From TrEMBL:
The keyword Transcription applies. The lineage of its organism: Bacteria, Bacillati, Actinomycetota, Actinomycetes, Kitasatosporales. This is TetR/AcrR family transcriptional regulator C-terminal domain-containing protein. PROSITE patterns: HTH_TETR_2 (PS50977). Residues 12-72 form the HTH tetR-type domain. It holds the Pfam family TetR_N. Keywords: DNA-binding, Repressor, Transcription, Transcription regulation. The keyword Repressor applies. Residues 35-54 bind DNA.
């Protein structure tokens, strides 16, 4: 009997499996280690087999961006109120990026171009415009939230402010006479929680969207 499955299917592969293993490889070794040959070895197949699921390296990288975006806002999300939806998107994107810090440079540099990634953006735009928000303002909002999540996650993954100059420990040793508020914050831990800071920024951005757009000069 003739087996009509493609080689990749016979190997028990599908596109989702290929992308998940690629994401795991980048998590552990960085994007520089991601090659079709290395990925094929991780999956136990020849590199050529992967081309049945991703046309090439660029499509593979686009797929990794897609994987993070769809983790941020699963396609089965049913929320129709724009504020909770965008909160979920922003916080979900930050969480997904912190789970996969190796992909951060990639997500920062590559636009969403795959159908599933564009579905995520389209979903947000549909809910925003359905609430009466002008399309351009809606797209600015979605992109601003994405940039906020990416930059915040990048700083968190790099450990900026955890130790050394500028950290709470470092500021605690500053001159309290000259910097009474900074040293108090350093001693008490006020304003140093990453999640709180991100939530404040998201809420400020959403509050701005709620206000009428300023007239152009």
């Amino acid at each position: 009997m003739v087996d009509g499955r493609r080689p990749g299917e016979r190997a028990g592969l599908n596109r989702e499996r290929v992308l998940d293993v690629a994401l795991d490889l980048v998590d552990h070794s960085g994007t520089g280690a991601l090659t079709m040959r290395r990925l094929g070895a991780e999956l136990g197949v020849e590199a050529m087999t992967l081309y049945h699921h991703v046309p090439g390296k660029q499509a593979l990288l686009d797929g990794l961006v897609e994987r993070v975006l769809t983790q941020a806002l699963p396609l089965d999300t049913t929320e129709e109120d724009w504020r909770p939806l965008l909160r979920a998107y922003a916080h979900g994107l930050r969480s997904a990026l912190l789970r996969h810090p190796g992909v951060l440079p990639l997500v920062a540099a590559r636009p969403a171009v795959t159908p599933a990634a564009l579905d995520t953006v389209e979903r947000c735009l549909r809910v925003l415009t359905g609430a009466g928000i002008e399309l351009g303002r809606a797209l600015h909002t979605v992109n601003s939230l994405a940039l906020l999540a990416i930059s915040h996650a990048t700083a968190e993954a790099a450990g900026l402010g955890e130790e050394g100059p500028g950290s709470a420990e470092w500021l605690a040793g500053a001159d309290p006479g000259r910097y009474p508020l900074l040293t108090e914050a350093a001693r008490t831990g006020a304003g140093v929680d990453d999640a709180e800071r991100f939530e404040l920024a998201v809420e400020a951005l959403l509050a701005g969207v709620s206000r009428p757009a300023a007239p152009r000069r």
